[in-house]
Amino acid sequence: MFEEAEADPCLSKEEFKPLEARLRVALLNAQYQRLRQARKTLLVVVAGIDGAGKGATVNLLNEWMDPRHIKTLAYGPPEGEELERPPLWRYWKDLPPKGRTGIVFGSWYAPLIREAARKHPRHDAIEAQAAAIRRFEAILAAEGVQIVKLWFHLSRQAQRERAERLLASPETAWQVSPADLKVYKKFHRIRAAGEITLNHTDSGHAPWIVIPSADEQMRSARTAEAVLAALRQHGVPRIPPSFVAHSGPTRVIDRLGRLDYQAREEKDDYDSELGLLQGRLAGAVRSRKFQDRSLVLVFEGQDAAGKGGAIRRVTHALDARQFDITPVSAPNSDELARPYLWRFWRQVPRKGRIAIFDRSWYGRVLVERVEKLTPPATWRRAYAEINDFEGQLVASGAIVLKFWLAITPDVQLARFKEREKSPFKHFKITPDDWRNRDKWQDYARAANDMLARTDVSRAPWHLVSANDKRYARLQVLRHIVQTLEDQL
Amino acid sequence: MFEEAEADPCLSKEEFKPLEARLRVALLNAQYQRLRQARKTLLVVVAGIDGAGKGATVNLLNEWMDPRHIKTLAYGPPEGEELERPPLWRYWKDLPPKGRTGIVFGSWYAPLIREAARKHPRHDAIEAQAAAIRRFEAILAAEGVQIVKLWFHLSRQAQRERAERLLASPETAWQVSPADLKVYKKFHRIRAAGEITLNHTDSGHAPWIVIPSADEQMRSARTAEAVLAALRQHGVPRIPPSFVAHSGPTRVIDRLGRLDYQAREEKDDYDSELGLLQGRLAGAVRSRKFQDRSLVLVFEGQDAAGKGGAIRRVTHALDARQFDITPVSAPNSDELARPYLWRFWRQVPRKGRIAIFDRSWYGRVLVERVEKLTPPATWRRAYAEINDFEGQLVASGAIVLKFWLAITPDVQLARFKEREKSPFKHFKITPDDWRNRDKWQDYARAANDMLARTDVSRAPWHLVSANDKRYARLQVLRHIVQTLEDQL
Question: Looking at CA atoms only, how far is residue A427 from chain B in angstroms?
Fold first, then answer.
């Protein structure tokens, strides 16, 4: 795959000049057209041999295009709060909105390339990294983030000559880093790392393009052509279903229907157990071991199932400085301009902290499915995307617990009526609530599907009978306390 | 001011119980009503004697109110990238949107209180800190962020007893920090610091309320009452004009009219000087000294004055990893829910970096004034607010340069027509542009006012004749290079 690049092809000045003029106009045009349409983000991933002119080429792109609408995203080794979250967190957080272009230095490929360039690369680590990258790029691509990946390549000899030439002049010496000067010595390992990386992560929806980089004009022209082709690309990429589809037909059990809705807790037992559980929770989250973990709590359930009340019984045991509650409703314009998981990634907690979601990313397969806000192909792939997201949280040390508070229609009706009468709850009930009630069966079916596909042991669902509020609150606390005590 | 609190008053259980019931309902009601209206943010600043129960009380507030709509903002000593920006940056960044409540621990008062609690407080430092806080709170209050500040206070003896009582039980010992145990020894200095703080920063729009804290029930009730009163407050607070108004009537000079619009640059001279200036710029921003500074460039001017072209000539000399360009247009919903400077505060650069604004916070006194998007009283106070903002940037090490690219109506007309004909510029011209043209005199007047009020030596305006694009680009680069070379 590097044959052409290692022949160090050149473009003469006579060939380059007219090409440059055409490319610049075309790039600007394509950029503005995308901005106007604002249908997709473009991410240009920059990688390749050190000292091949990556930085200089990106500067050139910024000059040829309108730099006001390009965001350069440069990452070094993870530091500070980045270390307290999953490795992909910082890339999620910084995603530009639709219509804009991001150029990524130090991308999610850095750890894979580093591993592959070791003297003895660990096969398993490479497979795992590559699989994580493929899933990441698949969700981005499916959610309107187009990706093109550039591998800057040249021959060993040309790399060395380029570094020495730049070093010789004080005007250009700053472009050369110490790493560039060491490439020569272990060129074959870096080259092999490139082969491994490209072989493992090339795909139709996020292609690798090798840029011959020995000659500046060739490098500039090929880069511009690659970016131009990406900017002009229309339509949704074909993404292999293995990355995005759920796990195939499953017999879905009516877990909601089988629940024991008679479960109750007496007032006296409740008060004493509530206090005990809250005490144990307080102890657990203040323990030294928890300072190296984090806790993610998801609350879902029918309207009026008592999510707010259950959450308050949990937070009662917590220090206000330790938790954040994110109430989730319809996405705003900033959120609509990014993949749907973006707004949840931004809320991923640091170590020692607790993130509570009152409704969550599961809206994708609940309200968005039932209300037909999202096409079936899109919400169907969300099961796998969500499982991957939660898997990343767990892998970085988070404890993830999900609660479905379940009530029956008659209890909901009683609570709605009670809310309408209450002097400070009546605004909680809206025409939407009554409309949702008419779709009770649709929601139940969506919830059963969701439970079947996303109840995994590393991030389990707890289906809680909530016709009796006291029982539901204790159950929630019991699950949390039990899990924390088991895991810490 | 601490007499009542140091008498350590108590509330009996019989007095407290009915009060608690009333307060809880009232707090929830008031909170929901504000959420629905979404007209204002409420910030509750928590300060006072360590070991007076601040944390416990905030936990209680979270429990009495709906914690899903309260954001606890807790700050320790500044760290990491916070140290690379003005001290108020982190508070600006985290401002909750309208309708929501934020409770602030470790607020902008921490440095003032620390200074005032020294054995020999420096009078000047206190005055400067207090003045900065007053300006900060004035702009927040004027922009729809209501502030109430609670000072938790109790007698020396009661503080000591409380800490010892909490320490005695393993259930509550975690509430006691080492600092709490040292309060006893230097109680008089902390008390004096409280007096100084309250005396310097109490105001009608951001009042201090002393909470007697020896007795838990008294402390809870008084805190709830203070927050309730704040939640219920209607109307815009009266803010002393000295903080917010501009500097009074000034004779405004028609600087735009007096400019020499004939200034030109010949092509040959231009090319060589452009290269030289870009080289000097490249050298300056790559110098070691710049790594401890930052650069903020503001570009304003009539439509078609050539802002984009000038910016590109600047960024040509920069590494794409070193700068960010923020194109500014109408605020989105997230931005409208906060003070207008919020979105610019979020873009304040770290050390060693460059932030370029294509249009800027000056929109407040330009387009918003001329198009009557903002009432006169509001844009009039923006001059002082903007001067304060830029002053904070400069004080933290930023170099701030502002450019107004000025053209004449005939040149604008010619450029509009040229754009309409160009295959890739025609979309740059919209009906808005033609409408703005009709208001040429209004915009000129607003620009002249702005120059008169915000052209300060620490953050100067450069008025650049831009009928000749080459001349304008060189002038911009000359000013930047000259300033950097002078200051580094």
Answer: 9
